[in-house]
Amino acid sequence: MGKILEKTSPDADKSIDRKTIEKETEALMEEMGSLQNLLYAEKKNSLLIILQGMDASGKDGTIKHVFSSLNPMGIMVKAFKEPTAEEMEHDFLWRVHPYAPAKGMIQLFNRSHYEDILVPSVHKTIDKKRLEERYDIINSFEQNLSDSGTSILKFFLHISKQEQKERIEDRLTSPEKKWKYDLADSREASNWDAYMEVYESIFERCSPDFPWLIVPANHKWYRNNFVAKEIVKKLKSLKMKYP
Fold this sequence. Notes:
Blueprint: H1 3-7, H2 18-42, E1 46-53, H3 59-66, E2 75-79, H4 85-88, E3 106-110, H5 115-123, H6 128-147, E4 150-158, H7 161-173, H8 183-189, H9 192-205, E5 212-216, H10 220-237
């Protein structure tokens, strides 16, 4: 496993009180709602939020809980799954670019263009030269979005291998979660170390101007607070005003 993830614990800070943090998260979500309204009204900027992580790391749960206070009119969610036959006939960003957020909007990516480095790297479906080019193409893509007024937040939901195992097993036994289970989750879990190695490369190379935020995600309440806090900080930095 690489340096960044080795140095970052997936657990919540033990010195922090859960009830205090949950109350803070509620306040942050309320503030986020006000800032979203301002973003939507001003229509000068937009925000792209990328959620990456291993299977069962909590991407769906983060979307469900952290963004529940937002106005649906001003937020969109796109989940990127295995490319379709049509998508495979185009360049790898062809399916991504149409979902770049318009002015005033927040766009969530549940997985993203980074899957087009991760999966081919682990399963060796693309030659190394093309993979190397994708790092530069993604950097240019994100810089282009930024130059057009889109702020970018990139979150990696960091869970332990043991936590992932327990969550996948929970999907097999819990009636309300069983539908989420996919045999591929267990297969991909066996490639844990290979994925971590590729993620380390992504953290280092994509992109220096848009740093990855490593979210300790073993504890959902801590994860939600971390993500909400960073989004509020980013929106406040835009210095928005009502027209």
